[in-house]
Structure formats: structure tokens, C-alpha cells
Amino acid sequence: MADTCGQVLLGSGLTVLSHPLMYIKVLVQVGHEPLPPTLGRNMFGRQVYQLPGLFAYAKHIIKTDGKSGLFKGLTPRLCAGTIGTIVHSKVLQVRYAHQVVGSGQKAEDGSLQHVVNETTKEMIARSCATIVTHPFHVITLRCMVQFIGREAKYSGVFDSIVTIYREEGILGFFAGIIPRLLGDALSLWICNMLAHFINTYAIDDSTSHTGEIKNCSQAVTGFFASMLTYPFVLVSNLMAVNNCGLAGGLPPYAAIYPNWLHCWGHLSREGNMSRGNSLFFRKLPAGKMYAIEQKRFF
């Protein structure tokens, strides 16, 4: 219990610190570009036209809504983080208890079978946490996207729950959950399997600092996996706000997608599968024109 409380407190602190970053990322994912491109330099020092980065975007939000504007949607996100941590911990405890009761031959630590078993348990725990907390995730995203149309439709957790249930029913709370679950599962398996093969076949256990090297490989593979599965995150977030009555989820910002596969196909055809993946050195979309009035690219 103490460990879970500690995880909740740590997670809540990190959520508060990272919330402005997520807020800006979501607005970019939707396609909202309130500031026109400017002439700057890329990482190689060459002059190019760039889209505003994280800090320029944050200044615009502060100018519009004040510093508190950077924390729209924080309350439901904290709820999701707290509940998700508790559910994740409880599911792992139940799985461990069942494993102890019905334990037969235990897989050797570091073996492929051990990695598969641990990854499966972690995937089940994460999926349960995601399903339980997804309604709060949907509310968080919609609170953020209100910035585009200056709406106040989703003003609080309880009011948002009533609004979503009244307009969309139970399914509205789970908009975009399928690509989110698939992305989380793929990311976890790619990360753990790559780390296992690197640690097993590329790292010599006889060398010094083996533990630090293995931890580093886990971090690198985690970053690589998140890059590969980013399109699932993008599609999930777009589906969570699609056709919900907010300007950011309706044309011209987004088409009305019947399901997440149509959203994926549309983004792929438009070349927007990585939109919002980077908030620094943001280059202009190829073949797109900036519309000043609508603050987006066509």
C-alpha cells in the first residue's frame, strides 16, 4: 500500500510538471497552428521556415489564457493517473498471487520465457488500467481542445461525464480506446523484446557496469518503441475528440471519421502520421498552405 501511495504521489507530481507539454502536443496533433511560420535555423544551422516550437506556443497560450491556461484538463488527468496506478498495482498483485498458488516450474530470470511471462503480466495490468481510466483521458483531451474554438462545454469532471453520457452514451467514454490499447501493447512488446535480445547477444556480462548498460538499453529501446507506435497515440487522441461538438474535432480541423481505421488512412494519405511528434525544429508540411484565419494548414 505504501509503495502504491508513493507511486501515486510521484506520478501526480510528474503529471503536473509535464501537463503543459502534453497540452501543446495535443493542440499540434489536432492541427491547430495559431502562429504563422517564421524564418529560423534548423539543427544544422541552415535558414528555413519553421513552425513555432514549444516555448513560442506556450507564450501564445499564456498571452491568451494566462499561466493557468497551460493546465487545462489537469484535474481529469490527475484522476486518470491516480486510478490507473492503483488498478495497475492491484492487477499485478492478483496475477502474482495466482502465479504463486499455481506455480510449477519457474522460468529462469533473463530467459526469453521469463521476458514473455513478465511482459504478458505487464500488458494485462496496463490494459486494465487504460480501460478503467480512458473516460478521464477523453475528458482531458476535450478540455484541452476547447482552446481552439474558445468553448466551455467541458468545464469540470462531473459536468463532462454528464455531457458525454447525454450526447454519446457509454461508448463516448471510450472513443479512441482501440488504437490506444494496440499502441501500448505493441510498444511494450517491442521495447522488452528488443532489450532482451540486446542484453543477451550484444552485451558481455563479464564487463564492468553491465547493469548500467542494460538499463540504458532498456531506455533506448523504450524510446525507439514509442517512436514506432506514435501513430497509434495520434489516431487515438484524434478519435477521442472527433465529432464531439468542439471546433477542434469538426471540419475543417478534422473530417468526421466513422472509425479509427478511416482516421489512420486519412492521416497516412495526407502525410500527417507524425504530426505533433516533435515540438522542436518543426518544419513546414510539404505542399501545404497556411490559412491565417483558420490557423491551420491546408
From TrEMBL:
Pfam families: Mito_carr. It is found in: Mitochondrion outer membrane. Keywords: Membrane, Mitochondrion, Mitochondrion outer membrane, Repeat, Transmembrane, Transmembrane helix, Transport. Solcar repeats lie at residues 113-201. Gene3D superfamilies: Mitochondrial carrier domain. It is a multi-pass membrane protein. One of its GO terms (cellular component) is mitochondrial outer membrane. GO terms for biological process: positive regulation of apoptotic process. Belongs to the mitochondrial carrier (TC 2.A.29) family. This is Mitochondrial carrier homolog 2.
